[in-house]
């Protein structure tokens, strides 16, 4: 014969009541903005190669070739970075060539620091945009791309 006290015992889950809603209905959930796709690490690698190119000029064309190779398979944001990097390489090539020609008139030596600062600012701006997963707004300009 079963124990009568055992049949009356109930668990705590059986006594739980559904919550009573008092007041206004709950607000609808806000739609979350779609997360931005992260910019590939190769974008930052090219910027690093350009900065290293200030010490060794060998890494400048390596960075440009890497950007050329990755540009076709890139997302839109990455593509603007690669376009910016390729344009930076060719514009740097033109600027250094102009400074090289002007060194015969000793003016080129005074222009070289401005070219170095120009490259530093472009690389820093591109790295900042890549860190925030943003595209370069104007990759074809001579300025910082902003």
Structural account:
The chain is mainly α and 146 residues long. It has a domain at 41-131. 58% of the residues lie in helices and 0% in strands. It has helices at residues 4-8, 12-15, 41-52, 59-70, 76-102, 108-131. α4 (59-70) runs antiparallel to α5 and α5 (76-102) packs antiparallel against α6. The longest helix is centred in the middle third of the chain and has 27 residues, at 76-102. The chain starts with a helix and ends in a 15-residue tail after the last helix.
Strand content: under 5%
Spans with pLDDT under 50 lasting ≥5 residues? none
Mean pLDDT: 83
**Secondary structure tally: strands:** 0
Q: Number of helical runs?
A: 6
Largest sheet: none
Shape, principal axes of CA atoms: elongated
What is the structure about, briefly put?
58% of the residues lie in helices and 0% in strands.
Keywords:
elongated
Topology (SSEs and partners):
Blueprint: H1 4-8, H2 12-15, H3 41-52, H4 59-70, H5 76-102, H6 108-131
Helix pairs in contact: 3-4, 3-5, 3-6, 4-5, 5-6
